[in-house]
Design brief:
- By secondary structure, this protein is an alpha/beta fold.
- Helices cover about 25% and strands about 15% of the residues.
- It is built from 9 helices and 11 strands.
């Protein structure tokens, strides 16, 4: 596939020592600033879907789900721009109003409704056809995403019994309706095959931004039965693949151990200088001060993050929209008025400055500040 902004590496790692309101607000603002500002990706009138991690009805202190404090801070930034927000996920089990409302309550999301945030109440299921997929050419997904102009992923950094880790890429498995998930585990029992399926979902939905709650992580028998582990970081990036490269380095995994890194050569080559190595960025996150968006030296990198046990045996077991993913259409300039239809505004974001240095990356230098890389130029042929 062509190298584009979805596969290029801009990752911001900012300190977030706890989930207090002020600390969460500061961390989210700083991460967005390092990525060029939220206005570079979202415009007034858009409907933004935040795909958070609500894997199960578990209290926030158990470190299995995305923190409501961080979600609240991000939602405020979006609504301040004049856009609307809906939060959603499809946990394991029944995908029904009763089950989801219980998950919202236990995960601490109900207070967000008083702040003007919508919690998904659309439990329809859509069918999709994705001819460009490596693994799943047709699949069903949660219908609430179809009404969103763009998608932002907000994952939780955790170890995972099957995949080794779960982060930005694995987060989009929550677009598959609840009871359909065991079918996918049975259909793709091998780690490599399951990873290819996850990459297909990311290539179809293409979130404009990916965040990862790495303040209180989960180690051991994740994604639900592990032990909370404090790391004190918020990760954000334009590419879920590059974000996961940094996240894996933080917990001691080598890049080649992350099976979802189909675009590993691209991600490593384009990860913003001077931090092309994800381990380099992770180490800088623990060395440098807050002024550059990296974790202060008082938060050291802990290389003893407990890995998960060996993967267990494989678990038991509308009309299709044809053509390219609707989230992959060419992006119009952000100077236009918001489109009345949801699909017309998808993928409309421009790039911001490099998340590592605050300056354009080498591959952006040929473009003007307001121009996406590659516009007005003939792309080089891939070797």
């Amino acid at each position: 596939m062509a190298e584009d902004r979805f596969h290029r590496g801009k990752v911001a790692a900012v300190p977030c020592r706890d989930y207090s309101g002020e600390e969460a607000e500061r961390a989210v603002k700083e991460a967005l600033s390092l990525l060029g500002g939220l206005s570079a990706y979202i415009r007034p009138g858009m409907r933004v879907g935040i795909k958070c991690n609500l894997v199960s009805a578990m209290a926030p202190e158990r470190a299995a789900t995305t923190s409501p404090a961080l979600l609240s801070a991000l939602c405020r930034q979006i609504t301040d721009l004049g856009a609307t927000v809906v939060l959603g996920d499809s946990p394991g089990g029944a995908y029904t109003p009763t089950a989801l409302r219980n998950v919202y309550r236990v995960c601490g999301l109900l207070p967000l409704v008083r702040e003007g945030v919508s919690l998904n109440e659309d439990f329809s299921v859509e069918s999709a056809s994705f001819p460009e997929a490596r693994s799943i050419g047709t699949f069903q997904y949660t219908g609430w995403l179809h009404s969103c102009d763009c998608i932002i992923g907000f994952s939780k950094l955790k170890s995972h019994g099957m995949m080794g880790m779960t982060g930005a890429v694995k987060n989009l498995f929550g677009t598959i309706p609840g009871f359909t998930k065991p079918e996918y585990h049975a259909r793709f029992p091998e780690k490599r095959a399951f990873a290819d399926m996850l990459v297909d979902l990311n290539e179809y939905f293409r979130p404009i931004l990916s965040f990862c709650d790495a303040v209180e992580c989960m180690e051991g028998n994740g994604p639900t039965a592990g032990t909370p582990r404090h790391m004190g970081l918020l990760l954000a990036g334009t590419s879920p693949y590059c974000l996961d490269l940094v996240g894996s380095s933080l917990i001691g995994m080598a890049p080649e151990e992350v099976e979802t890194q189909t675009f590993l050569p691209i991600a490593l080559r384009t990860l913003c200088l001077p931090c092309r190595s994800p381990r380099s960025l992770a180490q800088r996150a623990f060395r440098e001060g807050c002024s550059r968006g990296f974790c202060s030296s008082s938060l050291r990198q802990d290389r003893r993050f407990t890995k998960v046990p060996a993967p267990a045996a494989a678990r038991a077991a509308g009309s299709a929209r044809k053509g390219r993913s609707p989230w992959r259409r060419a992006a119009p300039p952000l100077t236009e008025a918001p489109a009345s239809g949801a699909s017309a505004a998808r993928s409309s974001a421009r790039w911001g400055p490099c998340g590592c240095t605050g300056h354009p990356s080498p591959r952006q230098s040929a473009s003007s500040p307001g121009e996406r890389p590659g516009e007005g130029r003939t792309p080089k042929k891939r070797r």
